Amino acid sequence: MSTSVCVVGSINMDLVVRAERFARPGETLLGGAFEVHPGGKGANQAVAASRMGAQVSLVGCLGDDDWGSKLRGVLAGEGIDIQRVRTCEKEHTGIGFVTVVPSGENSIVVASGANWRCTPEDIEEASGIIAEADVLLLQAEIPFETNRRAIEIALKSNTVILLNAAPAEGLSTDILRDVDLLVVNRDEAATLVGDDEREVAPTGLARRLASFGPDRVVITLGAEGAIHFNGQEMKSFEAFPVDCVDSTGAGDAFVGALATMRAEGERLKDSVRYGCAAGALASSVAGAISSLPTRDAVESLIRKAIPAAT
After folding, report:
1. Residues with catalytic annotation?
2. Which of 8, 15, 146, 154 has minimal CB crowding within 10 Å?
């Protein structure tokens, strides 16, 4: 049985520089190698889901420039339906400015460009795709009202709504009340609940997030794995040990794998385990889309880990 995931989200070109450390405020820091990679949370998660075996449609906007043309080619080459990806005249394609340090950690600043031109009207054009999808996958790199309209359409058609609330800064928690599954990392969770001092434990963050309305909450914890809260039970998941090269795209690999498994009707605990494996594999390869693993690679890592867990 085929499964479908409709992704509404951003499409960027990532400009990546490697450095010994992150620059301090006001400091100019000499970096090392420079790379250009396709990215953006919407595009990353669409490719991640496609490589996991889902039939994926992407709704978003690109600029009228060379990078927009290149990204169209990349996405089409991954087998993603991009009929609802609109080109915006006189606008640049979204750009992610990424710094990666030796530990594999990164910091990212995004110039939204065409992504911020994705409107509720674009969603109306894609309403049929959203209604027919098993899972609607959203992030927060496009306007709030655009995501809101997509959620309204999904609610009427019983499409599962998965929101990766990233970036979380400035995001209204009102959008969480109609979400079936919320996925955030620890920092995003703290931002959403107003834990400015970062004092609340992940389990406490999950409970607070659940109070805003989502049926289920997943918090990713990097090398510490992930937790899932369904409103009653809290479950922890260990990370898969890998050598971290670049964490860019690891969260998107997690979300794309999770969305695919949920679209297939898998139990959430099994879906989260697939997400953890996909995220681990992505962190072991440089780049965003270039690092996203295949279904075979994810399942191979899970099989190898089973003896260690028993």
Report:
1. 252
2. 15
